[in-house]
Design goal:
The protein is α+β, with helices and mostly antiparallel strands and 135 residues long. It has helices at residues 7-12, 14-17, 73-79, 127-130; strands at 5-6, 21-31, 34-38, 49-51, 54-56, 59-62, 83-92, 115-124. The chain has one domain (5-128): Beta Barrel (OB fold (Dihydrolipoamide Acetyltransferase, E2P)). The protein starts with a strand and ends in a 5-residue tail after the last helix.
Length: 135
């Protein structure tokens, strides 16, 4: 099993991950419009990302597809603020065409996120996985 990718790693290499399946680990956060993944640990979270004149949240938006699978919002609400592992396909701003003076846009509500992941699995990180190894 490969180590999960962190949010900061993904944001550093947006074009490298675009359109590929990835395993992300982060802290789940909720908005009225959906969910995002934030970097863990909080002390290492980045500030807003800038791309030209656009500014993006330093997080990844969870974007369920249009198929028959839907997010289990009951479980996700219990996991808000907790570490989760998401398996899915990433889309990033590098795949979006510029729309004149409007710029490239983004993902999530109002296009505030530089990447989204279409999840096919979301798991809570188990207690034994959360423990830091002894030094």
């Amino acid at each position: 099993m490969t180590a999960p990718c962190s949010i900061n790693d993904l944001l550093s290499g947006l074009s490298e991950f675009n359109g590929k399946p990835v395993e992300l680990e982060g802290v789940l956060a909720a908005h009225s419009e959906g969910y995002e993944l934030l970097h863990y640990p909080k002390a290492n979270r980045r500030g807003k990302l800038a791309d030209g004149e656009e500014s993006y949240e330093p997080a990844v938006w969870l974007s369920p597809g249009n198929g028959s699978l839907r997010l289990n919002t009951t479980s996700l609400q219990r996991w808000v603020g907790k570490r989760v592992r998401v398996h899915g396909v990433v889309q990033s701003i590098t795949s979006l065409a510029s729309v004149g003076s409007l710029g490239r846009g983004g993902f999530g509500p109002w296009g505030f996120w530089p990447a989204s992941i279409e999840p096919y699995s979301i798991q809570r990180v188990a207690a034994d996985e959360r423990r830091e190894p002894d030094v």
